[in-house]
């Protein structure tokens, strides 16, 4: 008898747990007689509900429901959302709003996206967003299909306190100045640059862009010929000299995120080349509140691209078959402008999507950099265009930072050997 | 008889439908897809264009694919030798009447209970870390310099060691069940005849474990070919050539990696077909080489 009672109890507990486990979605339904009473919006998010981004999205959904009466079902799909979206959209699953990188939305899902041009014009979206992302989306997709939610900008992130301690008052703008800064930092007992292997191609991509420009990198990535390009050899020689001078942090290139974490744990590493999320990653991993600053990757004298910066964004798209595109658009604007955009920036420590909001102190300078960016660089500056070889590019570039090549020509030959 | 037939059909139908829908259809579709130029895995069939063997040509011509196959081959061969040898050794020791058998069995199997993500994190952060990892701390204690375990030269072997550590318990349990199946009187008779433990192992245990060895080799092959999580964990954020394996290559080819919008579902399907054929080839070779039906006990 006792066993039966225990069995019955366990079965009911399992059933309850199973049912609870199935409910991975967040549901905002405050009812009311608002503008969108009776409207249900299904939102597929790339975040999890426990992450700061997820929490702000949920708060915004609740507030929007309160205000308009709409019901918002949020499905937390996580980072692998890109493996699900195209099949879900093509089979017209119940999705109104979805999140992914702006490049994926504009290049891969554009056929399933609602044209937001008119609604954006009516809402004055151009004044509430960074033009560089909108221009790129229109260039790739032919129409506005993505609304920027979480912009990113890349460059050299540095610890202002270390710079101050080393007596560096001006950030370097050229490679020569950058090397001087590294020398001063080293002389004072600090280590200049943190580098994790995972960002080695991004960092070297930046340097190559400064010398030969992104378009040439793309061409080389697709067709080879690295050895025949003097700029590649020069860029690699610069890095060989940089590594030889001992300007990399101890152990770099390290396993992500060990090297960047040293900026927080040991606080004796001055800089890292990455996108803005490195600041929140270091804070989350180490608990250190660093006095961050950002400067653009320095110009290489005689190079073709003195100033372009990497910029990317997680964005929101609306399904072309959505029955409530206006309600979906209004919610997207509710989330990506004004109060909730500011909340997202403050909570998740990221750049606001609306330039009239303010950036967190740790990201100071990022809004100005994005405003000034007209032609953002791609991630890895075009090397990812050759999706087949990019893993090999990465390893060869990590070897460059490991000091495995004696000359730039050797490095370029190793790149050509991959074809 | 008619009633019986109806009952057989009724019971079989759900299984047959499940196999057709969930196994046969995706398999056939993948094979067909591998001969077409398809960008997105969800593209309508009407948008596919016939590509012949070009997808196969593309992957076989790719240096990344070749690196991934080489990595998989090394995992299969070196990892297989180490894992199966150690798991057999542990199984033999545990069945030799040692004390605390249950404890050791549980301890060796324990890594299988822990998620691969947690295990990989432990190895990367606490064992291989250059600054505070266990291995370098041991080296420092004996006065040696630390090693960069996760550098491009050593990362693959670091990955392999971590994976093997977790896999041994699983194969040990299968060997254990096989050894425990062998009648004890065979060993007793051999002992009376004067055979020592080594002789008993080579002349009784090993021959009677042929079937189990074949099973373990098949499992190991499938395990190696579907190797994914460990590779992903040892190349966080984006794929690296030192740790890439064919399934990761397939994933990146079909879905695109970090910050790349380039996808090729047709080539991804071709990778899947090649891997499936590889499993079949190895399975048939093992069936030919290892015969387990000669002995009865």
UniProtKB/TrEMBL annotation, chain A:
Residues 1-20 form the signal peptide. Pfam families: SBP_bac_1. Keywords: Signal, Transport. It comes from the Bacteria. Belongs to the bacterial solute-binding protein 1 family. This is Carbohydrate ABC transporter substrate-binding protein. It comes from Mediterraneibacter hominis.
UniProtKB/TrEMBL annotation, chain B:
The chain crosses the membrane at residues 7-28, 75-94, 106-128, 156-176, 265-286. Its main location: membrane. It comes from the Bacteria. Pfam families: BPD_transp_1 (PF00528). PROSITE patterns: ABC_TM1. It is found in: Cell membrane. It is a multi-pass membrane protein. One of its GO terms (biological process) is transmembrane transport. InterPro entries: MetI-like, MetI-like_sf, UgpAE/MalFG_permease. Keywords: Cell membrane, Membrane, Transmembrane, Transmembrane helix, Transport. GO terms for cellular component: plasma membrane. Residues 69-286 form the ABC transmembrane type-1 domain. CDD domains: TM_PBP2 (cd06261). SUPFAM superfamilies: MetI-like. PANTHER family: ARABINOOLIGOSACCHARIDES TRANSPORT SYSTEM PERMEASE PROTEIN ARAP (PTHR43227:SF7), BLL4140 PROTEIN (PTHR43227). Belongs to the binding-protein-dependent transport system permease family. This is Sugar ABC transporter permease. It comes from Mediterraneibacter hominis. The lineage of its organism: Bacteria, Bacillati, Bacillota, Clostridia, Lachnospirales.
């Amino acid at each position: 008898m006792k066993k039966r009672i225990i069995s019955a109890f366990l079965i009911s507990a399992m059933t309850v747990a199973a049912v609870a486990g199935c409910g991975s979605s967040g549901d905002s339904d405050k009812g009311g007689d608002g503008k969108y009473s009776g409207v249900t919006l299904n939102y597929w998010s790339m975040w999890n509900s426990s992450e700061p981004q997820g929490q702000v999205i949920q708060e915004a959904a609740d507030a929007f429901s309160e205000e308009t009466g709409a019901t918002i079902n949020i499905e937390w799909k996580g980072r692998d959302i890109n493996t699900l979206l195209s099949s879900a959209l093509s089979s017209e699953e119940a999705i109104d709003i979805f999140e992914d990188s702006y490049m994926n939305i504009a290049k891969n899902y554009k056929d399933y996206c609602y044209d937001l041009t008119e609604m954006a014009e009516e809402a004055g979206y151009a004044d509430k967003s960074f033009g560089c992302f909108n221009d790129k989306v229109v260039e790739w997709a032919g129409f506005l299909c993505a609304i920027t939610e979480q912009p990113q900008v890349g460059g050299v992130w540095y610890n202002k306190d270390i710079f101050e301690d080393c007596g560096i008052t001006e950030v370097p703008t050229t490679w020569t100045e950058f090397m001087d800064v590294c020398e001063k930092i080293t002389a004072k007992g600090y280590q200049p640059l943190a580098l994790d292997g995972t960002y080695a191609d991004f960092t070297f991509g930046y340097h190559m862009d400064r010398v030969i420009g992104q378009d040439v990198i793309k061409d080389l990535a697709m067709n080879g010929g690295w050895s025949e390009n003097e700029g590649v050899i020069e860029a690699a020689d610069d890095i060989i000299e940089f590594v030889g001078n001992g300007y990399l942090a101890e152990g770099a290139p390290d396993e992500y995120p060990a090297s960047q974490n040293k900026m927080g744990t040991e606080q004796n590493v001055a800089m890292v080349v990455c996108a803005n999320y490195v600041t929140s990653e270091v804070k989350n991993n180490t608990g250190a509140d660093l006095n961050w600053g950002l400067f653009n990757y320095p110009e290489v004298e005689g190079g073709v691209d003195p100033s372009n910066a990497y910029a990317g964004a997680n964005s929101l798209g609306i399904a072309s078959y959505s029955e409530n595109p206006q309600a979906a658009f209004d919610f997207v604007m509710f989330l990506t402008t004004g109060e909730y955009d500011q909340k997202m920036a403050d909570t998740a420590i990221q750049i606001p999507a609306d330039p009239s909001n303010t950036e967190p102190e740790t990201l100071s300078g990022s809004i100005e950099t994005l405003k000034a960016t007209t032609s953002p660089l791609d991630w890895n500056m075009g090397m990812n265009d050759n999706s087949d070889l990019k893993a090999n590019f990465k390893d060869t570039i990590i070897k460059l930072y490991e000091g495995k090549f004696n000359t730039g020509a050797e490095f370029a030959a190793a790149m050509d050997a991959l074809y | 008889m008619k009633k019986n037939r109806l009952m057989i059909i009724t019971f079989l139908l759900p299984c047959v439908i499940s196999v057709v829908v969930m196994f046969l259809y995706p398999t056939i579709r993948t094979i067909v897809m591998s001969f077409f130029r398809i960008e997105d895995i969800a593209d309508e069939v009407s948008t596919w264009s016939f590509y012949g063997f070009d997808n196969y040509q593309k992957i076989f011509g790719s240096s990344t694919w070749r690196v991934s196959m080489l990595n998989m081959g090394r995992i299969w061969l070196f990892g297989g030798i180490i894992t199966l040898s150690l798991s057999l050794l542990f199984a033999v020791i545990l069945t030799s009447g040692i004390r605390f058998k249950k404890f050791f069995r549980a301890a060796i199997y324990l890594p299988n209970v822990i998620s691969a993500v947690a295990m990989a994190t432990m190895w990367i952060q606490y064992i291989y870390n250059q600054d505070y990892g266990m291995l370098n701390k041991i080296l420092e204690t004996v006065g040696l310099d630390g090693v960069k375990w996760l550098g491009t030269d050593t990362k693959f072997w670091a990955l392999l060691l971590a994976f093997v550590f977790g896999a041994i318990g699983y194969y040990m349990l299968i060997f254990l069940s096989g050894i425990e199946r062998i009648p004890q009187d065979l060993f007793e008779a051999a002992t009376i005849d004067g055979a020592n433990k080594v002789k008993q192992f080579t002349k009784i245990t090993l021959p009677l474990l042929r079937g189990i060895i074949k099973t373990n080799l098949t499992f190991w092959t499938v395990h190696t070919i579907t190797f994914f999580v460990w590779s992903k964990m040892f190349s966080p954020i984006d794929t690296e050539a030192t740790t890439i394996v064919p399934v990761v290559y397939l994933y990146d080819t079909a879905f695109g990696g970090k910050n790349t919008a380039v996808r090729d579902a047709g080539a991804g399907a071709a990778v899947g077909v090649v891997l499936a054929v590889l499993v079949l080839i190895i399975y048939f070779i093992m069936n030919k080489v290892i015969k387990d039906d000669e002995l009865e006990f």
